[in-house]
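Appendix B. One record, verbatim.
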Amino acid sequence: MDDGRQHSDAEYLIQFLRTRDLPCPACGYDLRQLQSVICPECGQHLRLTVGLADYRIGAWVACILGCSFPAALGCIVIAISVMNLDDVMRDIGRMPWQVMLLVCYCFVMLAAIVLLLVRRRSYLLMSRERQILFGILPWASMVVVAVILYVGS
């Protein structure tokens, strides 16, 4: 960023705060009549930004929660397996396919959670319809896996 742009941003901030009673986001100090871009109370640098009026994260939260339930179940299975590691290693060849499917599904959901957290911005930039579709997918996949496990047993 060049000095002309920074100088201009600082002027906009000071002008914006000249007639407004707004608190410092860090310490709550009233910034009316601010003379510089630094809060006089806490010393934090301030900047003027634009934010969303309606931040829609419902589908993202639904997707995270839909992935979290099977991932939590997977963590419980792993914890039980670690506690009984000798039995698990002895019986690994005889483990039912349903258990293997469930463990694999849980690992996929753990990877999905990591991906959703890392790529949150990309998710939120998707169209509303795609966000809803991706929000429903983990829940639908739980139903499919449950049906497979029920039919296969």
